[in-house]
């Protein structure tokens, strides 16, 4: 089992360089595989679209919460760490132009020696996507096409360059360098709790991250993912599954249960504290509780 950790976003510490450096380095020392960062380009006050992971329909982050750009923050943390994997969870893919994004992601992957993992979503806040100039009704198709563009631009190219023609994006004889360090490009995991997300993971993803989904509901989604992969001529066994948990309540038994369910990675969240020493203590207690091997 791999362990990933999300910093306490609601505490407004994620744009504090000293706080985040200390957090990331402690996670690396304890043996956490990766740090996971969220994204909101903007939050629109009074948004009417329902947040899908809460009965209230409101996300847990306040409207004025500090949410730095995840890729810029990952670039910063790449220089502050040596082994820690750098991940998004999730990047709202349709808000990004994939030609520009392909270069940004490849650059981070090169400079971090192949430590980048991309987890993407289609976005749930209609008002945010519209503020970015995106038609909310097209976000699924646009996301699929963005993934395809990224993979094309990360592929091998000759003197004639690379070409793509789709519904939203089109180019010919394009050269995009550097390429990612990792074979096949930066791994792309699909975040979400819907059957559409599970299908996308099977068709196009390297993994699936349905945080907040458990039991029979998760089993249904995994079946959708596996069937989609098989129909696409892909091997479902090669897809990683990342599920969520809380740092304070996750036990060795719950880790074992997650592994039996087929999870490869557990993404945990700490308490929403601004006290770095307290959060680091929680991380250390977690590492001891689940018997996570420390890295030298």
TrEMBL record:
<dbReference type="InterPro" id="IPR036661">
    <property type="entry name" value="Luciferase-like_sf"/>
</dbReference>
<dbReference type="GO" id="GO:0046306">
    <property type="term" value="P:alkanesulfonate catabolic process"/>
</dbReference>
<keyword id="KW-0285">Flavoprotein</keyword>
<feature type="domain" description="Luciferase-like">
    <location>
        <begin position="16"/>
        <end position="260"/>
    </location>
</feature>
<keyword id="KW-0288">FMN</keyword>
<dbReference type="Pfam" id="PF00296">
    <property type="entry name" value="Bac_luciferase"/>
</dbReference>
<dbReference type="InterPro" id="IPR011251">
    <property type="entry name" value="Luciferase-like_dom"/>
</dbReference>
<protein>
    <submittedName>
        <fullName>Unannotated protein</fullName>
    </submittedName>
</protein>
<dbReference type="InterPro" id="IPR019921">
    <property type="entry name" value="Lucif-like_OxRdtase_Rv2161c"/>
</dbReference>
<dbReference type="GO" id="GO:0008726">
    <property type="term" value="F:alkanesulfonate monooxygenase activity"/>
</dbReference>
<dbReference type="InterPro" id="IPR050172">
    <property type="entry name" value="SsuD_RutA_monooxygenase"/>
</dbReference>
<keyword id="KW-0560">Oxidoreductase</keyword>
<keyword id="KW-0503">Monooxygenase</keyword>
